[in-house]
Amino acid sequence: MSKFSVLIANYNNGHFFEKCCQSLVAQTETDWEAVILDDGSTDDSLEVIKKIIGSDSRFKIHQNDQNRGIGYTKRRLIDLAESEVCGFLDPDDALAPHALEIVLKTHSEYPEAGLVYSNFVRCDENLNPLSVHKAKQITELDQSYYNFNAEISHFVTFKKKIYEKTSGIDPFLKIAEDKDWYMKMCEIAPVKYIDEDLYLYRIHDSGISTTKNAEKALFWHWVALIKMAERRNINVEDLFLQSYVPKKKYDQAINQLNHVKNSRWAKLGNTIGLFKIFKKL
């Protein structure tokens, strides 16, 4: 059995996979398996991935019978993993060369820790570094563990025996399933933050939780928070109001301003030069 299972959920990302694969082959720790589960890709991802992998037996490819979604796919990946220590790597991302070595050492030094996680490097579409996101050590079940600011972030690794004490990844969640199970892990065991930049996170238009999908990701994050509140019998209503009532009022003000700007009287005033500020609104 390998020391570490790298879990890769793929959906139409085969064209990004080469650098992901290269980063695994370049690891200083070589005793690993990479479990790839394709979630019904509609492009040639599987063929591309198989060609890139070649004859490396450490890569193991599986397929869902149909497109099942990220929650189902990641949950099944954990079931397929053979190692006690696991971590998710997206097929469009990559790892620093010493990533597996460092996380395995930390898991060994902190046997009680369910999660071990690091910083990640934001990269452009070609995986050129842009900036570093610093994670945070979580010690209490306070707002930090709600993960609004990615306090727990890539590279997230975990002990399977501790994960199995939770209800696991929720297959119902379409996005932000990681927020849900990170909270579950924090609720049952300590977690350990490593101040190292171990994960290269590619930003591109088709990313699940970036750009055009950001609002959807926020919605599913709140679904996870409501499930957490039910699990712990706490009230997150005030938190929701604090976060969104001011935004609602701001949106109302903008709508009122646009209504004024579009009125015939405002347009007439602008035409005859009465409202010099109009063009700046």
From TrEMBL:
<dbReference type="Pfam" id="PF00535">
    <property type="entry name" value="Glycos_transf_2"/>
</dbReference>
<feature type="domain" description="Glycosyltransferase 2-like">
    <location>
        <begin position="5"/>
        <end position="165"/>
    </location>
</feature>
<protein>
    <submittedName>
        <fullName>Glycosyltransferase involved in cell wall bisynthesis</fullName>
    </submittedName>
</protein>
<dbReference type="GO" id="GO:0016758">
    <property type="term" value="F:hexosyltransferase activity"/>
</dbReference>
<dbReference type="InterPro" id="IPR029044">
    <property type="entry name" value="Nucleotide-diphossugar_trans"/>
</dbReference>
<dbReference type="InterPro" id="IPR001173">
    <property type="entry name" value="Glyco_trans_2-like"/>
</dbReference>
<keyword id="KW-0808">Transferase</keyword>
